[in-house]
């Protein structure tokens, strides 16, 4: 029997998002927009964002990724004008007065809600450091919702766990460039990112760790209107991911073109 169509504004409630939740919303809205059109609905990124705000209320916090890599690739970043390359939802959030962007030029988030001021006051130099928004996610039971996407494309939190586990296939790389702040003032600044050693031929396999999280009951998978949705408590996910990174040679996280024993020596 075909399940009835659920308006996309009701998805947040359908997956159990509640008042006061802290939510990291990752999305590929193309499938949502297409499905809405097939059922006579007009899709609006703002309406989707509004629906999550309605569920969590101002007692919660909503984070939407607004990642961009011109700073590492071209040596420049403009806090107010550099767009998001992580999806249409991030660019929609950047246009809204109720959201504010965090400071890091490569891994920023648009934030709304209770913890907005605290998150936007962070000045972490390392994308995945212990003073970063990812550390906040680790310690505050942030729920990541992957809407129309999957672990492979969206679970950037894994890189934070890798940094905490000090994995041997990454090294800290510095990038220096021009940073234009929210007041329009230009500075020369240096930021860091734990880059992969490309000679090891690593390939991300994050859907593998996602399956382990689901088997452990830490993550849930929903299918709504034919669209896959994953829900993960990032605090609860941390020990399982850390164990794989620190003690299992990342077998559920990466494939390598060389033997793992040569990397973990």
Structure summary, number of beta strands: 12
How do the strands of the widest beta sheet line up side by side?
4-5-2-1-6-11-10
CA-based shape: globular
Span of the ends, CA to CA: 54 Å
Question: Quick one: biggest sheet?
Answer: 7 strands, mixed
Say what oligomer this is: single chain
Give average pLDDT, whole number: 95
- Could you tell me the strand content as a percent range? 15-25%
Computed CA radius of gyration, to the nearest angstrom: 19 Å
Helix content: 25-40%
Q: Which structural category fits the helices and strands?
A: alpha/beta
Determine the number of helices (DSSP H or I, runs of at least 4 residues): 12
Regions with pLDDT < 50 over 5+ consecutive residues? Answer: none
Question: How would you portray this structure in words?
Answer:
The protein is an alpha/beta fold and about 260 residues long. The protein is built from 12 helices and 12 strands. The mean pLDDT is about 95.
Q: How are the elements arranged and paired?
A:
Elements: H1 11-14, E1 22-27, H2 29-38, H3 45-56, E2 61-65, H4 70-74, E3 76-78, H5 88-94, E4 100-101, E5 109-113, H6 116-120, H7 133-139, E6 143-147, H8 151-154, H9 157-165, E7 170-180, E8 186-196, E9 203-204, H10 206-215, E10 219-224, E11 227-233, H11 234-247, E12 254-255, H12 260-263
Parallel strand pairs: 1-2, 1-6, 3-7
Antiparallel strand pairs: 2-5, 4-5, 6-11, 7-8, 9-12, 10-11
């Amino acid at each position: 029997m075909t399940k009835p169509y659920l308006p996309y504004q009701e998805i947040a409630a359908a997956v159990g998002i509640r008042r006061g939740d802290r939510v990291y919303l990752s999305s590929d809205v193309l499938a949502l927009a297409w499905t809405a059109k097939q059922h006579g609905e007009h899709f609006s990124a703002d309406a989707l964002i509004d629906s999550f705000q309605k569920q969590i209320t101002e007692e919660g916090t909503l984070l939407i990724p607004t990642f961009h890599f011109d700073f590492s690739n071209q040596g420049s970043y403009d806090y107010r004008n550099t767009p998001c390359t992580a999806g249409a939802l991030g660019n929609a959030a950047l246009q809204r007065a109720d959201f504010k962007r965090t400071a890091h030029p490569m891994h920023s988030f648009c934030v709304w809600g209770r913890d907005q001021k605290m998150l936007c006051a962070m000045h972490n130099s390392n994308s995945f450091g212990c003073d970063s928004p990812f550390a906040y996610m680790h310690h505050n039971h942030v729920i990541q919702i992957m809407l129309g996407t999957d672990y492979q494309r969206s679970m950037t939190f894994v890189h934070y766990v890798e940094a905490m586990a000090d994995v041997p296939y990454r090294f800290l790389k510095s990038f220096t460039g021009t940073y234009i702040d929210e007041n329009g003032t230009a500075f020369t600044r240096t930021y860091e990112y734990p880059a992969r050693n490309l000679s090891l031929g690593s390939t991300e396999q994050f859907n593998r760790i996602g399956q382990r999280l689901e088997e452990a009951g830490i993550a849930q998978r929903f299918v709504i209107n034919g669209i896959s949705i994953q829900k993960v408590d990032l605090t609860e996910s941390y020990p399982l991911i850390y164990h794989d990174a620190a003690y299992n040679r990342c077998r559920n996280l990466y494939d390598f073109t060389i033997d793992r024993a040569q990397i973990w020596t």
